[in-house]
Amino acid sequence: MNKNTSPRGDEAKGIGPLLKKPSTIHTPSNQMFEGWYKIADNVHELRQKPADTEKITINLGYVDLGHVDLMVQEGFYSNRTDFIRTAIRNQLERHADAVKQSTVRNSLDLGLRNYSREDLEAARRAGEKLHINVLGLASIAQDVTPELARATIASVSVLGALHASPAVKAALADRTR
User: Fold this and answer.
1) Hey, which of 77, 105, 109, 133 has its CA 20 to 30 A from 140?
2) Contact assessment for residue 68 and residue 80, using Cβ atoms and an 8 Å cutoff
3) CA distance 156 to 169
4) What distances in angstroms separate CA 160 from CA 41, 76, 130, 157, one per listed residue?
């Protein structure tokens, strides 16, 4: 055999040496897919992950907005949102002592506070009424009925956001400030 002739003649037919190798792509069988579905059926979400941000809308004058855009253009901030978040954090830091004193004075729970159906049912059994005072996020579980909420929650004051079903929010509207 001369050196210009391939042993099988495949290169001459346009089939390169890479195409002769066995495929490395594996196609799963139906049994594998069925097994995956069985595993997926056993997975349950333990608790819903709360949103870690809340969208707000602000109105700015054109000159102020232009200044923000200039700071972004010059690379001081990655975008308008980055600038606004930084400005808000700076103001909160500047007034941190006053916020801390007010939080204590008003008996506010700081951060995330979840109220489950079990929490409210326990309050009802104990004959207690809850006063929800939160600075951050107050969350009332989705399985709480409007009747249970009205029977166990005396007042709602949230500085931040309240997550609850529309029916529960409506039932507590006269107790929310």
Assistant:
1) 105
2) yes
3) 10
4) 36, 28, 19, 9
Task: Give the pTM.
Answer: 0.59
CA distances from 129 to 98, 105, 120, 123 (A): 29, 21, 9, 7
**Amino acid in position 173:** A
Cα–Cα dist 164/83, whole Å: 31
Find tokens 């941190």 and name the residue: 96
Per-residue pLDDT tens over the stretch 98-149: 988 998 888 899 899 999 999 999 999 999 999 999 999 999 999 999 999 9
Q: Are strands 130-140 and 109-115 parallel, antiparallel or unpaired?
A: parallel
Whole-angstrom distance, CA of residue 148 vs CA of residue 118? 11
Which two three-digit tokens encode residue 7? 């042993």
Q: Is there a contact between 177 and 126 (Cβ–Cβ < 8 Å)?
A: no
C-alpha to C-alpha distance for 111 and 121, rounded to whole angstroms = 23
Q: How many CB atoms lie within 10 A of CB 143?
A: 10
| Residue recorded with tokens 């000159």 | 63
Distance CA 164, CA 114 (A): 10
Query: What's the first-to-final CA gap in the chain, in angstroms?
Result: 94
β-pair type (153-163, 130-140) = parallel
